[in-house]
Amino acid sequence: MKKTLKKISKVILPTVLGLFSFASVASAHVTVVPNTSTTGAWETYTVKVPVEKEVATTKVTLKAPAGVEIMSYQPVPGWNYTADKEASGKVKSITFEATGAGILPGQFQQFTFVAKNPDQATEIAWDAYQYYKDGSIVEWTGDESAKTPHAITEIIAGTATDDHHDDQAATKETSKKEVAKAADTAKSNSLPLILSILSVILSLVALVGAFRKK
Predict the structure, then answer these.
(1) 8 Å CB contact between 64 and 91
(2) Which DSSP symbol is given to 168?
(3) pLDDT tens digits, one per residue of 159-188
(4) Order of all β-strands in the sheet with 137-140
(5) Is-contact 34 86, C-beta < 8 A?
(6) Helices (H) and strands (E) in the chain, counts
(7) pTM reported for the whole predicted model
């Protein structure tokens, strides 16, 4: 029995470690929510920045997608905000830079801002640049299949009543949508972990069955 358990542990342990490692990597992306909004709406966006290295993140830059007008931001304690603007005054990119330790390993930080969506239905890509204390930079600018993909927001056709700016009813509706989308994001992030656990269970059952036959 002891020999059987040792054989099982030799197979299962590396599998468990590998799968859990995959689950943590799969969820360690810079994301922007909501991932769906309406044309011409004033939307409240939140960029979530996790740390995937053993050093702190000290700066984050987010480019404004074509057709998006970034107007205001929510101050974050311990971080300075700057905006790079065109000659016309339109914001090209925004940067949050730490005044202290930054985002430490195992932590994440959220930055919130308000922007006006494009007037036409489209998909907008949020190119982000994550700066680490050791001088390295992770460019979240790839497509969905890339190792470092950018976040995508789908802009769908809306009506005048979809305008979220200074509109209490629309603000409440947006809050409901954001809660629902946050729940969906949480489910999505937990999927790799669930699949990992199921894979381990199935592997264990198969091994036990094989040893019993012997």
Answers:
(1) yes
(2) H
(3) 655 555 444 444 445 445 554 554 555 455
(4) 79-85, 91-98, 57-63, 128-132, 137-140
(5) no
(6) 2, 12
(7) 0.65
